[in-house]
């Protein structure tokens, strides 16, 4: 699994090298302090790079959708829609897609940290029904993080339905859905969920809620009924932080104990 995934990464790099120059305009780079994020808004769609303190943390994060409840209708990546607009600054990206009665608006806000620290990406997704009738729409977010550049040896779990936590390589990733909470989720090993989103039938995520250690991935699913001309909004936040080494925690604990002892001695005087 590790070898195959690495090979796919090499193929993706070669594809970027070989594509025409105009296609590279689809790659947007966000930067702030210790962090660089790259999002490909084109045919090789997704947030595919989140470098923190000089180390890659992600393999892929992107979105799929399905209109209606027909079990023979599969999900489609949102970049199968037409890109209708894009705008970005150093820390901000907004990109919109539309077609087939649906408009999807994505917004990323990056907040980097100090050297050696963590990083944060806030995301807002607005889904608009542009038809004259009510619409049932299922929306999916798929995430594959290789924390600290390590493939495998990681664990992930869903907490309280709306939060997922992944740990590995001395890092912890936490994504919290502020609103609305997902209706379904799945934590599994690569590429199980990705294959389900890309097959020829409808998918409903049915867990499990945790997996690992291994090459873990996770996904959320929202089920909406959106009125004609109305929209649904998903708001969420990803936070990446360094987990202190056990030795550092011991030193920190010793320091706190020493400080407490000094305070007691001062009080006795």
Quick structural summary:
This protein is of the alpha+beta class.
Q: Care to describe what's here?
A:
The strands form three sheets. This protein has a nine-stranded antiparallel sheet, with no helix packed on it. Strands 6-5-11-17-15 form a five-stranded antiparallel sheet, covered by helices on one side. Strands 1-2-3-4 form a four-stranded antiparallel sheet, with no helix packed on it. Residues 9-24 and 247-254 have low confidence and may be disordered. It is globular, with a radius of gyration of 21 Å. It has one domain: Distorted Sandwich (Beta-galactosidase, Chain A, domain 5). It has helices spanning 2-18, 192-198, 246-268; strands at 27-32, 35-40, 46-52, 55-56, 58-67, 76-77, 82-88, 92-99, 102-111, 119-129, 135-145, 154-159, 163-168, 171-179, 184-189, 210-214, 216-226, 231-242. Helix content is 17%, strand content 50%. It has three helices and 18 strands. By secondary structure, the chain is an alpha+beta fold.
């Amino acid at each position: 699994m590790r070898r195959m995934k690495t090979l796919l990464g090499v193929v993706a790099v070669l594809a970027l090298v070989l594509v025409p120059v105009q296609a590279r305009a689809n790659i947007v780079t966000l930067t702030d302090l210790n962090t660089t994020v790259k999002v490909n808004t084109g045919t090789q769609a997704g947030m595919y790079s989140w470098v923190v303190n000089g180390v890659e943390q992600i393999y892929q994060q992107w979105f799929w959708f399905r209109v209606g409840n027909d079990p023979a209708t599969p999900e489609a990546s949102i970049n199968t829609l037409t890109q209708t607009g894009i705008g970005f600054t150093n820390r901000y990206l907004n990109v919109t897609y539309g077609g087939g009665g649906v408009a999807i608006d994505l917004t990323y806000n990056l907040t980097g940290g100090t050297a050696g620290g963590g990083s944060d990406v806030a995301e807002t997704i607005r889904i608009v029904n542009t038809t004259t009738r009510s619409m049932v729409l299922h929306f999916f977010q798929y995430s594959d993080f290789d924390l600290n550049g390590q493939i495998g040896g990681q664990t992930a779990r869903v907490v309280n339905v709306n939060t997922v936590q992944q740990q590995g390589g001395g890092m912890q990733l936490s994504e919290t859905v502020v609103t609305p909470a997902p209706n379904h989720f799945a934590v599994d090993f690569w590429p199980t969920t990705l294959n389900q989103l890309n097959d020829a039938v409808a998918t409903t995520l049915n867990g499990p809620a945790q997996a690992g250690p291994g090459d873990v991935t996770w996904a959320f699913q929202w089920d909406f009924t959106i009125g004609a001309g109305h929209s649904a909004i998903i708001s969420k936040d990803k936070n990446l932080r360094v987990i202190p080494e056990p030795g550092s925690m011991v030193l920190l604990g010793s320091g706190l104990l020493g400080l407490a002892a000094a305070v007691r001695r001062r009080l006795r005087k």
